[in-house]
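Note to self: keep these together.
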Amino acid sequence: MSSHSLKGKVAVVAGGGKNLGGMISRAFAREGAKVLVHYNTDASCQEAEDTVKAIQEMGGEAFAYQGDLTKPANIRTMFARAKERFGAVDIAVNSVGKVLRKPILETTEEEFDAVLAANAKVAYFFIQEAGRHLSDDGKLITILSSLLAAFTDGYSTYAGGKAAAEHYTRAAAKEFTPRGISVNAVAPGPMDTPFFYGQETPERVAFHKSQALKGQLTRVEDIVPIVTFLATDGWWMSGQTLFANGAYATR
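Structure:
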């Protein structure tokens, strides 16, 4: 049993209904945490409800919260709801992201604003609100991307927004240190989820696979234990970005 267990802790997982976020929500619940499962739109409602149901069926406590987190008021409400329901917030994980693969010369202002809002603005105000609500010795984790270290084309807005979020993570780690709150980021490689495939051609998918161990994309199930570690025994780590990508990229 971990000396820094999740039993009895309360977690807010932004984007917690599906893909990586959904698996994090379920993993935390298996370890005894109570979970607020956030989702964005009606289209992802069923997946969030399925995640909540799965947690409840394993004997855990969870509820779903819908909100467009590019509007900071919804982030404030989300943390307030978690505290109203469970009494505290001990762990905050932001897995929200919006990807666009498009050349700089073809990117519109509207596309730039939408991608930066999801990847940078949400990250900033999520960190801000987590800093206001996390209990002392809390854990704050942001999901970034290994494209921060990759020299590639097409992802200027996505990687640029994640780069800003990485800086916010480091700044918060210093600012929240007096309260014992650890602040870290995990940067997976291209993940084997619909989030990735919708942006790429089969040829480019094959190339991305060829750059990592065993010729495979990053698997969601290999990232979840790293996030769980940062929320438990990895408490002493702070201000770090963990690149988890099977040698896809490093720095």
